[in-house]
Specification:
Layout lengths: L1 H24 L6 E2 L13 E9 L4 E8 L10 E5 L8 H6 L4 E4 L9 E4 L9 E5 L17 E3 H18 L8 E6 L2 H17 L8 E7 L5 H5 L1 H8 L5 H11 L9 H14 L38 E4 L2 E4 L14 E2 L2 H6 L9 H7 L2 H6 L19 E3 L6 H9 L3 E7 L7 H10 L4 E10 L2 E9 L3 E6 L6 H4 L1 H12 L5
Parallel strand pairs: 4-7, 4-9, 8-14, 9-10, 10-15, 15-18
Antiparallel strand pairs: 1-2, 2-3, 3-7, 5-6, 11-12, 13-14, 16-17, 17-18
Family: Belongs to the peptidase S10 family.
GO biological process, one term: secondary metabolic process
Keywords: Carboxypeptidase, Disulfide bond, Glycoprotein, Hydrolase, Protease, Secreted, Signal
Length: 497
């Protein structure tokens, strides 16, 4: 019996090796990433990267980086990851959040960062497809610069074309459960793209994707819900007094998004003054602004009151100092229907968008670009985490109708919020998920990670889940990597969080 068992195990191992071999043999020639500068060791799973041409006539090409699951890539879900901006590369997620590596800033100037395996990479339980979108962002580009004038709807359409063509290149993953995920302005990208995917499935557009659901973290959703969220958040967090909260609520009639009186404007200005020196991406963290010292940054009065601080603050981490600029404020100035990208919004006020030293130094290195198959033609000058190369129109309106359409048809949705993010506060997200009108089937309760309360959760019918992450800022997998992997892996597996 022991001999038979040993033979059976050996046979199973051979079958697994064969399946793994077949899985990677269908990949496009030259797409395999064999090594990455800064990392010494073996990859825990196979990596692929390259381009998909979505418009031959204009030469529009979208760049992707694909990390196979470290578990069972033949069966594990495939998850598309999108960062926001608009105008920010999804290498943001790869480098700073849930990619396969942790990056350590080099000790000497001009040297490459050191890479270590990330114990909380989302590739532990799924294959992750990082996409630079739209064209003009990151390493994605077009030969026709008119393609850099785009918006929500065109971006969703282009990303859908990308997915169809990508799965033609990697048909071995068509049967895997497929999910779309993203954060910040990807709160717009994700549901609009999901809607395009579902329309394609309904129309029997080949290949047929095995789409199961989507994930949005601290995502922009609806002008009014997001715009009204800051005052209630600031009050709940003890950032403004009860007296000021009562005054601003009375004078604004609860409408903080679009003030209609001078008294309301004046009270909102007082709110802004109280929060002006906080790090908007995580109110628990200090502000860092362009020097080696920690210092505060005053608000910019040219921006709407509740968004004057967006993008101006940063937080230091043990291995890096970084300036954020990754969530577009839905109250930002709009001219001729065009919304500003982060560099356009912030540079116009004398404030740089990002100073992402680790990602910038690594991805501007010629040997790194060669290793990941990034074309020189894709970058005008140096690579930037967030670019002002595109002109972007917010033309999809509120996302609530998209969420209701998708969830009512049975597609699963996980909406999560770092509860100390003041950029897209959880108060707005909690309010809009409640506004959909679904029956509560899992009443507000704590969820546990590593034996501790990690946040709170409310489940609705039609598989809509709202979840908070305690103590986290805007980019949850970055601030709380262990907890993020916990809820992500449970949700993908259909388990109770």
């Amino acid at each position: 019996m022991a001999k038979n068992k040993s033979t059976h195990l050996s046979y199973s191992a051979l079958i697994y090796i064969f399946i793994s071999f077949v899985l990677t043999e269908s990949a496009p020639e030259g797409a395999l990433v064999t090594q990455i500068p800064g990392f010494d060791g073996n990859f825990p799973s196979k990596h692929y990267s390259g381009y998909v041409t979505i418009n031959e006539a204009s030469g529009k090409r979208l760049f992707y980086y694909f990390v196979l699951s470290e578990g069972n890539p033949s069966n594990d879900p495939v998850v598309l990851w999108l960062n926001g901006g608009p105008g920010c590369s999804s290498f943001d997620g790869f480098v700073y959040e849930h990619g396969p590596f942790n990056f350590e800033m080099a000790n000497t100037k001009g040297s490459l960062p050191k890479l270590h395996l990330n114990p909380y990479s989302w590739s532990k339980v799924s294959s992750i497809l990082y996409l630079d979108s739209p064209a003009g962002v990151g390493f994605s580009y077009s030969s026709n610069e008119s393609d850099y004038v785009t918006g929500d709807l065109k971006t969703a359409s282009d990303s859908h074309i990308f997915l169809l063509k990508w799965f033609e290149l990697y048909p071995e993953f068509l049967a895997n459960p497929f999910f779309i995920a993203g954060e910040s302005y990807a709160g717009i990208y994700v549901p609009t793209l999901a809607y395009e995917v579902v329309k394609g499935i309904d129309a029997s557009v080949k290949p047929i994707l095995n789409f199961k659901g989507y994930v949005v973290g601290n995502g922009c959703t609806d002008n009014e819900f997001d715009g009204n969220a800051l005052v209630t958040f600031a009050h709940g967090m003890g950032l403004i007094s009860n007296e000021l909260f009562e005054e601003v609520t009375a004078d604004c009639n609860g409408n903080f998004y679009n003030p209609t009186s001078e008294n309301c404007e004046n009270k909102l200005a007082k709110v802004d003054k109280n929060i002006a020196d906080l790090n908007i991406y995580n109110i628990l963290e200090p502000c860092y602004h362009g020097t080696d010292d920690i210092e505060t940054v005053t608000g910019n009065t040219k921006l709407p009151s509740s968004f004057r601080k967006l993008g101006e603050t940063v937080r230091p981490l043990p291995v890096r100092k970084r300036m954020f600029g990754r969530a577009w404020p839905l109250r930002a100035p709009v001219r001729d229907g065009i919304v500003p990208t982060w560099p356009q919004l912030l540079n116009s006020n004398g404030v740089p968008c990002t100073d992402d030293e680790v990602a910038t130094s690594w991805l501007n290195d010629e040997s790194v670009r060669k290793a990941i198959h990034a074309e020189q033609a894709s970058v005008a000058g140096s690579w930037e985490l967030c670019t002002d190369r595109i002109r972007f129109r917010h033309d999809a309106g509120s996302m609530i109708k998209y969420h209701k359409n998708l969830t009512s048809r049975g597609f699963r949705a996980l909406i999560f919020s770092g509860d100390h993010d003041m950029c897209v506060p959880y108060t707005g997200t909690e309010a809009w998920t409640r506004s959909v009108g679904y029956k509560v089937v899992d009443e507000w309760r704590p969820w546990i990670s590593n034996g501790q309360v990690a946040g709170y959760l409310q489940g609705y019918e039609h598989n809509l889940t709202f979840l908070t992450v305690k103590g986290s800022g805007h980019t949850v997998p970055e601030y709380k990597p262990r907890e993020a992997l916990d809820f992500y892996s449970r949700w993908l597996a259909g388990k109770t969080i």
